[in-house]
Amino acid sequence: MRILHIARPIPRGWFYALFALSGFAGLIYESIWSHYLKLMLGHAAYAQTLVLVIFMGGMAIGSWLAGRWSTRLARPLLWYAGVEGLLGVAALLFDVLFREMSGWLFDSVIPGLDAGWTIDVVKWGSAALITLPQAIMLGATFPLMSAGLLRAHPAVPGQALSWLYFTNSLGASIGVLTSGFYLVNKVGLPGTILAAGLVNFLVAIIVYVAERSTAPPPRPVARAEPGISGAAAAMLMTAMLTGAASFMYEIGWIRMLSLVLGSATHSFELMLSAFILGLALGSFYIRKRIDAATDPLRLLGWIQVVMAVLALLSLPLYMQTFDAMAAMLKVLARTEQAYTGFMLLSHAICLVLMLPVTFCAGMTLPLITAALLRAGHGEGSIGRVYAANTVGAIAGVLVAVHLLMPLAGLRWVVSGGALVDLGLGLWLLRRAAGPASRPQRYALAGALLLALGLVLTVRLDPTKTTSGVFRSGQARTSADVVFHRDGKTATVDVQSYKRGLIAIATNGKTDAAIATKGWPSPDDYTMILIGALPMAMKPDARTVGVIGMGSGRTTHTLLSNPRLEYVDTVEIEPVMVEGARQFGDFVKRTFEDSRSRIHIEDAKTFFARNRHQYDIVLSEPSNPWVSGVSTLFSEEFYRQIKRYIRPGGLFVQWLQLYETDIPLLSTVFNALGAEFADYRVYYTNSGDMLIVASPEGAVPAIGASIFSEPGVAALLKSLNLKSMADFEQRLVGSRKTLEPFFASYGYPANSDFFPILDQNAASRRFMRANAEELAELPPFSSRLEGHTMTGVPEDTVGSLDFSSAIVQGHLIDQYYAQAGPRKMLPAMDDVVMNLLDDLRMEGRNCDHELLVRNWLTAIKATVRRYGPYLSARTGRAIADDVKRAGCEKALDETMQDWLSLLQAQTARDWEATADVAKRLLAAAGSASPEAQLLLAEALLAVLKTEGPEGVAMLSLMYSDVPLKAVPLRYLISNGQ
Fold this sequence. Notes:
The strands form 2 sheets. Strands 7-6-5-8-9-11-10-12 form an 8-stranded mixed beta sheet. It has a 4-stranded antiparallel beta sheet with strand order 1-2-3-4. The chain is built from 35 helices and 12 strands. With 976 residues, it is an alpha/beta fold. Helix 20 (635-641) links the parallel strand 8 (614-619) and strand 9. It has 4 domains: 1-217, MFS general substrate transporter like domains (Growth Hormone, Chain: A); 229-465, Growth Hormone, Chain: A (Up-down Bundle), CATH 1.20.1250; 525-776, 3-Layer(aba) Sandwich (Rossmann fold), CATH 3.40.50.150; 801-974. It is elongated and about 110 Å long.
């Protein structure tokens, strides 16, 4: 069959539309590769940097090769179609190849290597091996598409190239947003990269069919290209240096804006999209001016000078973005609908900061390429310019991340790029034909003075950069910044507050706080308990691995136990370790004890390389909304980490309850439950909890031996924790009953490749969501699981609502156990004292109105708050008080039922509890304020007596009661 050729060339609009689709797919690859490679490299910042280097390096190689070969090709568009098709094939294979390579790397290669540069070389080499071929192909697309377009439409080469740059960059800007905000959430990483591959296939088919049905365009006249003249060399040098400066800006702005927007994955995608959109608009603006430019060197020189000044002006402008974010958060409602507005306004902040500079940067490559074509350097110049620019970009990334950021600080990353552009601009203006006019000389002098003034005077205000405005809504912090350092992966600050608190923050987000005077901080409870709790469960533990330095307080707590042989603390950011040193004596053992071993490495590589098994492994990650952190809550992580726990050992993880919700937490528990045999969950404060998990067998009970270790006991005493009961009262529940509860939300397990936690956690942060409703579970989980609370100290100060109820319930028991006249105990709080006053009937008349207002209200409050923790003796004593006062006959039927419910509840008489609760519920109705409490008590009793059938029937009968309430969902899910 012969294909009919027609003479009419492909319309220019087709080229632009197809290249927009190609850019759309290309930036999906860059975005998704960073997701994949952070699983290999251990940190999102390292992954983003390496992806940039590989992406730009591959683009440089591909564009250079395609530029050299394009003149020899009769149909460059057919080759373009072939490259797009190969990209589609690579996308189909990428996920499988990555998983196989990653597994082989961590299971077989890294364990045989020494620490240091060899492991880095292997990991980086593996990352390059799996992504560089596609990057090379992506680099070849622009020269091949440009060659096809210029042969078909040779009249206005400058305008055509500008359109290609514009449409490709615009497609890329949209692609990164589509990938980050929609595709990953819907189809995961494998589905997203497959979607990009399908786009490549679509482009390949359209181009192939269109090109094969068109007569071949005339080849360029075969002639020797002129040598690289001085002007041409200047153009290529400009392409390289402006690429370096532009990517120094990008690296600097991404870190800077992380302090304003938060370092969530979506924030990075907004920044990248804004950066590329600026390039696109600059290319669009220059499209009609390129072919008319009589002196490209002079025009380029002025663009570089203006770009440098605008980059320096972005620094004082950046300081205003904190105020803009604070104002924005004051205006926006914290709802799911408003989150879209928050993202749009955040994108606007990125654009305001980046657009002026990237707009200028977007003009440079079309201008340089068109000038070389016009000078007779042929199609090969397209590839050379693109290659020079991307080589410069690689240099800019490396200088920014590995030199300027850690040595000079964040400000000098942007300032350094500006100085490169400024020097380049001056050099180009000096080489331009003819002298500059007087107005131009004045303008240049003014630009130089302004640039010099900005370099010397502009500083980044630490009271703003450490404010965490994206969480606090405040543009400034009231704390003194006692330590500030820009590391390769994060900016670390240590702040001292006048109220007696020291805190360490990464990228503006506080990760740990220690109280230096007065009451312990909430984080003190968490950092000490995460070390003490597993040691109380496993007193024979000798070795511990800790993931994450934080303040260093947990490692200090562990080393307070002289029986431990060593503690390995793994931290990926060296500056975090330096920040932790600022806490002094509070973390002294972490840095001075010979058993403390600090390792600067990502945890996954460290454990794979050493192959050591520990008695206890602790994980102390930051909040899951922080980019890269959600991988420490994934099914794959749990599968890996349990390999490094000895038989009978324990894994403990810190999990935040703020800036999240229960459905998102369920993804963590679903992942954990898939890999660990048992787990128990403990509160440390109202906003944090600890998961203690056992890879095999049940989680052991808490032992009292930990209090015999003077160092640990002293730390626990500082939290007013003095006995086993102080641990036990913080128990939320165990896997037995929590697993069906979390499964009832219907969310899948969080996975590295389907990162539901990473994709949704940032929105929960914005909405100020929390999972504190879990505090409603212990009154029911303790009875359902049969926990008993004994020996609760009278002087324990409950830091949680429910633990306070346990302590006060114990005091109520003691009150009613007193012989003779009862006396209020000193540790009782005012609420309990008032409650007991209302419960006592001595000397009171039996007026019905008073009974309803005081006594019945007190009985209901006792059932709701303290009943689950009272003894049967106390329930009888309260009933006896009524009899002694002679008010028994004055109680109506409802009052008698509430008194009976309290007695049945405290006696754990499940049949009586079910009968009375059902009767009260039927009388009060589903709309009554007590409906949820009564239904929960009835469901618990029915679950204990009748099992799942009774639960199903009762929940069906009262389906009009909001069954999504946490205790009801918990009980119903356990009855299924």
